[in-house]
Write a structure and sequence with these properties.
Rossmann fold; two-stranded antiparallel ribbon; about 260 residues
Length: about 260
Amino acid sequence: MPTLHCFTIPPGKKAPVSGYNTGPLTPPKPIAETDFMTKLAIFDLDNTLLAGDSDHAWGEYLCHAELVDADAHRRRNDAFYQQYKQGVLDMNEYCEFAIAPVAGLPAARLAELHALFMRQFIEPMLQDSAQKLINEHKAAGDICLIVTATNRFITAPIAERLGITHLIATDLAQVAGVLTGKIDGKPCFQAGKIGKLESWLRKQEDPSLSMQNAVFYSDSFNDIPLLEAVGEAVAVDPDDKLRQHASDRGWRIISLRSG
C-alpha cells in the first residue's frame, strides 16, 4: 500500500491548484472600442496584389490581339504609363484611349475578349503571397476591398478571381449596357480614391467600418493621400517616392514578390 504524505497549510493560506499560476493576478486587459469593430483591409491592385499593371497590360493585349495598330498604340500606352509613374496622368484622356478600341462592342464580345486577357496576361501576374495575405484578412473576419484607379471593366473579373467581393474602381459610362469610352463620374485616382471610399462607406450597413479602422496596402506614391487617411498604411514593393515617404512616416514596408 503506498505511503500517504500529509502537509499542513499555514493559517491564512490557500492550497495551490495544480497546473495554475498562484502568483499575483494580472488585471484583465481593457476591452477597446475597436475590438467590436469590423476591420477594413483595403488593397491597391496593380503592382500590389498583382505583379504588374493590369491597365498597361490591357494595352499590350490589344496589340497582341491585333485590335489596334500595334506600334502606334504601344507608343501611346507606354507614354501614358510613364505619366502615371510621374503622377501627372490625365485619367479621362487615358481611359478614353484604353477603351476606344472596344467601345460599342456587345457585352458577349467584351466578355470573350476579357477572358482571353485574363488567361494570357493576368494569370501570370497572380502572386501566391498576395492571395495568402487576402486569405489571412478574411480568416480574421476583416472586410476585403480593392480600391484601384484602373477601370471597372478591366478590374471586376480580376477582383472576382482574387476572391474579393468589394471593388471601388474608375467607372465607365454605358448606354444600354454598351461602353461609350467615357468615364462615369470622377476617376478613382490619387485623392479621388478618398472621395470614392467615403461614398462607399456611407452605403455600408456596418456602421463600424471606417477609414480609421482600416489598413491600406499600396505600391505607389499616387496613393499617399489615402495611405495618410487610414488607420494603418503599408507600403508594398513601393516605388522610390513611396519608399522614402513610408520610411519617414514609420510605415511598414513589405514585399509580396516571389523570390
